[in-house]
């Protein structure tokens, strides 16, 4: 579909203005909840960081092991095929 400019830019702006609501200031409870949620997320991030690092190390070690086993297996299979023929 090709680009087609809006036929009346002023009409488009008026339509957007109709759907925008003025910003409502946060209540004290909402502000406290946002602060609390931010603190919980930061704490969880600090607590989970060692697990994430351990999982990355484990994944890297597993990838090396799989690569090594795959190359050994493929070499073994080639030898078996050569011996069979």
TrEMBL record:
<feature type="compositionally biased region" description="Basic and acidic residues">
    <location>
        <begin position="7"/>
        <end position="20"/>
    </location>
</feature>
<protein>
    <submittedName>
        <fullName>Polyhydroxyalkanoate synthesis regulator protein</fullName>
    </submittedName>
</protein>
<feature type="region of interest" description="Disordered">
    <location>
        <begin position="1"/>
        <end position="29"/>
    </location>
</feature>
């Amino acid at each position: 579909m090709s680009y087609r400019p809006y036929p009346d830019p002023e009409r488009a702006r008026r339509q957007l203005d109709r759907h925008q609501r003025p910003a409502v200031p946060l209540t004290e409870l909402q502000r406290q909840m946002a602060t609390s949620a931010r603190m919980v997320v930061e704490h969880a991030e600090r607590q989970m960081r060692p697990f994430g690092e351990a999982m990355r190390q484990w994944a890297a070690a597993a990838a090396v092991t799989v690569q090594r086993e795959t190359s050994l297996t493929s070499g073994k299979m080639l030898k078996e095929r050569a011996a069979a023929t």
